Amino acid sequence: MAQLFSPRADRRLRLGLLAGAGLVLLVGASGFAWVRAGAAWAVGEPAAQPIPFSHAVHAGGLGLDCRFCHAGVERTADAGMPSAETCLGCHERVWNVTAQFAPLRAAIARGAPVGWSSVSRLPDHARLSHVAHTQAGVACSTCHGAVEEMPRTVRAENLSMGFCLDCHRDPSARQRPASAVMARDYLPTGEPHALRPHGLQALRYEHYGVEVSPLTRCSTCHR
Ligand code: HEC
Ligand code: HEC
Ligand code: HEC
Ligand code: HEC
Ligand code: HEC
């Protein structure tokens, strides 16, 4: 019988298939490495902001407390943002009022907040409560890094589900006494701290004989 493909064509086909498979593997592996490295989470990348606000100047240099501008952290799920009036309260007097503050005046005139971009926003299906973490002795820097040293605010941790679960499986080692939650010079003692008496960790959820901690239950973080 006459050969349909010459041995050379056959070899070329094999080589082609091998190269194709190699390419698929390479794309997959680099995609995996990219996600792992945090590039996919925009870790370390500042967002475009209407005013070049600096935490290093205000929370670092001037030493303003985080709660001065993010008043919700101890009371509500949302940390909250400072009003334009909060900024002008100082900038009307202590500093020259320049063009870079125009968005503050526009916000006051519109009666709307300054449209800051977020570097921490979670997808809509996931939720986070600031008051729960503050009361449980989890410091801002655990999730946001050393914000008071940032000239431009960036995401310091990837804030992925794995990041959350890493702690939710056993938070005790990373909790501070509630009184030290806002301290910037806190040194970990290595001692596990007393937990909130009616906190989620105190509860255990029985389901078909399997104990599931409420802290790792899907509905704790997903709606
Ligand atoms: C003088 C007011 C002020 C103080 C004090 C302040 N912040 Fe902010 N913060 C802002 C403003 C304005 C923004 C929005 C602009 C930006 O992201 O840089 C912001 C944004 C943030 C964000 C990003 C939020 C997001 O949606 O991604 C985090 C995290 C944050 N602040 C944490 C802190 C922490 C922690 C402290 C204390 C160490 C602090 N801030 C102190 C005004 C303040
Ligand atoms: C407690 C007073 C105070 C408050 C409140 C305050 N600032 Fe400032 N801000 C200052 C001072 C003082 C400086 C000058 C710091 C310097 O030059 O060292 C400054 C500097 C700045 C600068 C120039 C920073 C730079 O990178 O050179 C910007 C922009 C600014 N502030 C925006 C804001 C915004 C936006 C808010 C509200 C979220 C705000 N400030 C709230 C006191 C304040
Ligand atoms: C357990 C992790 C965690 C801790 C602890 C934490 N945050 Fe956040 N923070 C987040 C996440 C995640 C978001 C985004 C929330 C969302 O998209 O619903 C966020 C959002 C914010 C925002 C944006 C708020 C807004 O209204 O847009 C600010 C400001 C902020 N955090 C400041 C703080 C400060 C100040 C502290 C300490 C008192 C703190 N955070 C502690 C994880 C944390
Ligand atoms: C360093 C530890 C730590 C990290 C990181 C952490 N958490 Fe938590 N989380 C806790 C502790 C501790 C509690 C409070 C448990 C209790 O009430 O006893 C809690 C409680 C919660 C609650 C329950 C709030 C309520 O209704 O009482 C939610 C929702 C939550 N965390 C979401 C998240 C999400 C989303 C992330 C990741 C972006 C995250 N957490 C990261 C330690 C952590
Ligand atoms: C401690 C909080 C927490 C718990 C508990 C949790 N998740 Fe998540 N999950 C998150 C956060 C935060 C994200 C969003 C991460 C992102 O994409 O920014 C997420 C993302 C997801 C996604 C989307 C993944 C993607 O690639 O976009 C799925 C699906 C999911 N979770 C399923 C689950 C299931 C199923 C459970 C229960 C077994 C669970 N989660 C428990 C915090 C949690």
TrEMBL record:
Domain of life from the UniProt record: Bacteria
CDD domains per the UniProt record, alphabetical: Cytochrom_C3
Cytochrome c7-like domain boundaries: 128-223
SUPFAM superfamilies: Multiheme cytochromes (SSF48695)
Family matches, as InterPro entries: Cyt_c7-like, Multihaem_cyt_sf
Pfam families on file: Cytochrome_C7 (PF14522)
UniProt xrefs under PANTHER family: CYTOCHROME C7-LIKE DOMAIN-CONTAINING PROTEIN, LIPOPROTEIN CYTOCHROME C
Protein name (database record): Cytochrome c7-like domain-containing protein
